[in-house]
Amino acid sequence: MTDISADLLAEILDEVRGDASGDVVPHLGDYEHPHPDALALAVCDLDGHVVSAGDDETLFDLQSASKPFVYALALDQKGVDVVAKRIGVEPSGDPFNEISLEAGTGRAPNALVNAGALAAHALVGEEGDDEDTRFEQIRVMFSRLVGREVEVDQQIIDIEARSAHRNQALAHLLAEEGTLADDPHQVVSGYGRQCAIRVDTRELAHMAAMFAGGGRLPGDGEQVLGRRAVRYANSVMFTCGMYDAAGDWVYQVGLPAKSGVSGCLFAVVPGRLGVAAYSPRLDEHGNSVRAAAAIEALSDRLELHVLDMA
């Protein structure tokens, strides 16, 4: 990573720091965010070397940034054909929590809107697994990716459980269509725990580098997820990862990416790098304003757009 230094990342953070637009987790009501002005940027190469700047050790919930990892886990465990019966791969063009399924199939349009994330969560593990068993498999995967035992944010779980009506509606709609593999209430509860797993920006960049390396853990080369599952997850992130702003993101930044309403955002430079940024204030699409700007600036500086021609 000779062309990427902490000074470069700090310079980019200084460029975007002045943008105070956006709202902090507006769906959590009167929740008082502990770090509303946090800002961080990190990059990890396939050897596991991490360069970072800013508030890079501040912990945050993964929220929707967890979706591609669990989707890839479901693909790895169940295979593409089984997953495809329940989850499509087309951009929806709708907000992430839209109560809508694919016409004619009853599938979720893709794995990165909430309907698809619920369907993917339900596919993890063996038939008959309860919520605790399924979640533990997911938690263990994330622990392997970051190299420590990850924990959940119980306060966020409790708050979101009191207002999970849209996710409950989506889960029941999927169940009605026969495209949810388990009980709706169990799935929504487990999915809430999945979203509340906590990491920091350096760890998220390390996780993203796994996607950049075809499923191998950066540094030691352990195959955490299968190459085919990772290829499909990267593909869906490229077209759907930024929700109804996905087209603008591909046009401007050109990297598979996924955001979370905690303010985190990661991007994948296939074969090279994992990138992560964090800033809690969100735009109207639910994507972090400053994290998106920081990764776009990095992509521009280093010509990381996957469609740039050498």
From TrEMBL:
Its EC number is 3.5.1.2. InterPro entries: Beta-lactam/transpept-like (IPR012338), Glutaminase (IPR015868). Keywords: Acetylation, Hydrolase. This is Glutaminase. It comes from Dietzia maris. Belongs to the glutaminase family. HAMAP family: Glutaminase. One of its GO terms (molecular function) is glutaminase activity. Homotetramer. It catalyses: L-glutamine + H2O = L-glutamate + NH4(+). The keyword ATP-binding does not apply. Substrate binds at S64, N114, E160, N167, Y191, Y243, V261.
